[in-house]
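Thread: "does anyone have the structure for this chain?"

Original post by V.I.:
We have the sequence but no experimental structure in hand. Need at least a predicted one for the grant figures.
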Amino acid sequence: MKKYVSLILAGIIFFSSFGNDVVYAENNSMFQGQTAVHNGRDAMEAAMDRNEDTVGDDIEDGPQEKPELKTEAAVSDFTLEYNALQDVMILKYQVNHAVSYVDILVDGRPVQTEYSKVYTSYSYDLPDDAEGKKYTFQVIPYEIRNVEGSSVKIAGTPSEQKEYEIPYKQGVFTDLDAEYDLLKKYLIIEWFGDGISSVDIYLDGAAEPVVTGVQGNSYSMNIDWQPLSKHTYRVVPYNKIGQKGTEKTVELEVDDYAAVVDLLDVEYVPAKGEIKINWAGTNVKYVDIYMNDELLAENYAKEEFTLKYTPQAGASYLITVSPYNENGEPGEEAQDTLLEGEFEIPAITRLKETSSYGTDAEKFYTGFSKPAVNIKWTAEQNGCYEIYRAARDARSSYACIARVEVEKTGPYIYTDSNARIGSNYYKIRQVIKEDDYITQEVSTALSDSEEITIKLPKPKVNINLTAEGAVMFSMEGKKEFVSGYTILRKGRNGSYKQIAEVTDNTYTDSNTEFGRQYFYRVKSFYYDTKTRQKYYSPMVNVRAKNTVGSFAVCAQQTSEENVKITWEAAANAEGYEVYYKSATEGDSYKLLQITDQLELDAPLKEGPRYCFMVKAYKENNEKKIYFSTAETELKTGFTRPGNFRIAKTSFQYDKKTKALVRKDKLAWDKVYGAKGYYIDVYQPLKKKFKTVKRLKGADSTSYEVSNNLPPKTETVIYRVRSYAGEKRAVSENLEVRLQIGKVAGVTVSRAGDYARVTWKRTKGAELYRIYRSNGRSSTLVGTTDKLKYTDKGLSAGVTYQYYVQAVSNTLKSEGEYSDPVEYKKKLVRVDFLSASSSDKQNVNLEWMSDDGASGHIIYCREGNSGEYQMLARVNGSRTYYTHKNVTPGTTYCYKVSRMEINAGGVETESDTQKVKITIKAPQGNKSGKNNNSQTKNKTQK
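Reply from O.Q.:
Generated one for you, tokens below.
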């Protein structure tokens, strides 16, 4: 309770200090009624202290009597001083010891309160319109006194009120200037100053002004002055009450006609790769043209200049045209900035694995591919970019692999043809390169990194048996940069051993036994021709059993009462058993015949449907019989035409229409029981077939259709329907692609170290494209209008397939690819093989060989018959070998072959070069034995 009463009392005292009660100074009659200011916080705390012991006592309502306070605070020696230059009134005064601070009053209004007693002067900034007005000034002193623990503000004796009338200023110029436009005959005079209300203007010393009472800060007039003439202008200022100020006279010399560039336009024309600079000027005799401070043209008299230059994206080019007048005097130069594109850190938007063609030392395609990465980003037109690659994402690992210049704005793809198997990290940046107009190369920071991992895929492997019982591998690499395949076979001891490494897509293992099962592992590899390193895929396990192989069989009706059954040769088959049955439910197969042939004619005995089964068999040495079966079904009588096909295509020129006419002979198998056939063609607009020909008779199984080239549509769809009375049966649709013919007669032959491809002329063809494939990647190696082409860059030991395609730009047509023709380049044999023996104990072999050999193999046999045996292999480029300890009186035959690692990483061997030498026996040694050799061999033993 005591605490709350104290707070109430403190609040009453605190708010009473801001009420209408006043503390007066005894001698301050003019300020009676003015409120004394107390410190509210101190008053509140003092009241709480005073009333702490009054808790519980009654408090009387109503005003309390306050004592009168007196102060000696006073101001003396009060003076005013007007500073016209600064437009201020300076108040000067003295204060006595009792003064705490003063208030400054102007026209009875405080303009500065609680002004420190330390200062005895005060500057009052007069308003702009103070001239001619009267102002009163007064200084009021105050003392701050502590009364009963509270600070009380007590007004002292003020200064007298002083009045001052502000005089009008005399006009004075701070700046005066004039400019004469010689072309427009126009004079402009401008001035600035103080106290200027109006001016009079005099020209060339005239007694009478050309104009009076001009207000503002400028005056303009038309006047005809001559170039290089001299003049004076005098300007007299007046203030607001017409008092004359300080006049000023200035000389003016008229310029000569100045060269001025009125219009400057700079434009880049991307289509032409040119910068067009156009301008229009006045009094311009010639100009100098600069770009980035490099002189483009000097004393150039035309108003258009073309610079053959492609500005770099993001680079700034300052074009400056400096004009000169008739007297060779320079005018004011004009400038314009050319800025094409942005200069910013690019961002990689996509990394995509791909492949690129491999080349040899002469930059010819080898037919093999290598892994590559497409790097995609959004580029600026004429932008320059650097591509960086690293095997790991560390700053120190990145190296610049390329710098490219982009012609168009938009998505851009750079192909890194040297990507590695494994992880590849990429960054890019934009560059403004140094050239004739860019003095220093600058670049952005590198972009964020992006990663792509290139892996070799497992090969897809199919196993088949050849007719002779060998295991044939068909391999498919899922990526073009697969160089070849390594094949391992499981031995009888359970371990796998490499049996082959090939670049072809096929391999045949002939070292097999009938009835035995074999296990293999196959892996694909990539061979890096630069590092000579191989990278392998994971293994694929396959197995093959050397048994009677699978095969296919078909049956075709050859007459009303006969059928012909044909089948493929089955691997390892000794013979075939042929069975038949009708399609009647419950019927079983019956043996027709046992044969070692691949076809059989059989009579039709019963029913419209037949099933045929052929069983291939072989008996091994243990009298165990292996077999494989194949089945087919035949429906006789009225059926739909089967085997609908293009039997022949020919071309001829139509002399009337001057068009190339394509003629396709459509053919199908005979339908027994049919009365004839309808030939229909599809109409795309009507979306239905239309009959173009009716053929009578079941034997009418072909029809020729003609279409002009170039065609209205790329393809035409045909069908054939057999009919017999009201019965109809429709064949499958046949799509005929209307294109020029397929190239025929393609051959490939050796032409030195190259391959020569030839073919027959195709009607309508204007060009021929030649493609080469290694079975995984196909390369366009050349285009010609001749009928032959010489292909370079082949790698030895690789089986290539060649395709030729006819092209007609006039007919807007491309023919089918020709049938493939294979070619395998052989290594060049060694030359100048020689054998000599000077000591009749050793044979020295020497030869010449081309560069790039990985080694040479020497074969030998004794005598003129028998098989050669491998004698030795010498590695690298070594071209000699010594066969030691030969037997005198013996003839030695040698063969030497050259080895080379091809572009697929597989070592291949050339044909051999032969030489023969007979070692003469020493005289007196009729036995032909070499005693020295025998002794030496004994010693070695």
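V.I.: this helps a lot. The CA atoms of residues 321 and 334 lie 5 Å apart.
O.Q.: and The longest strand covers residues 365-379.
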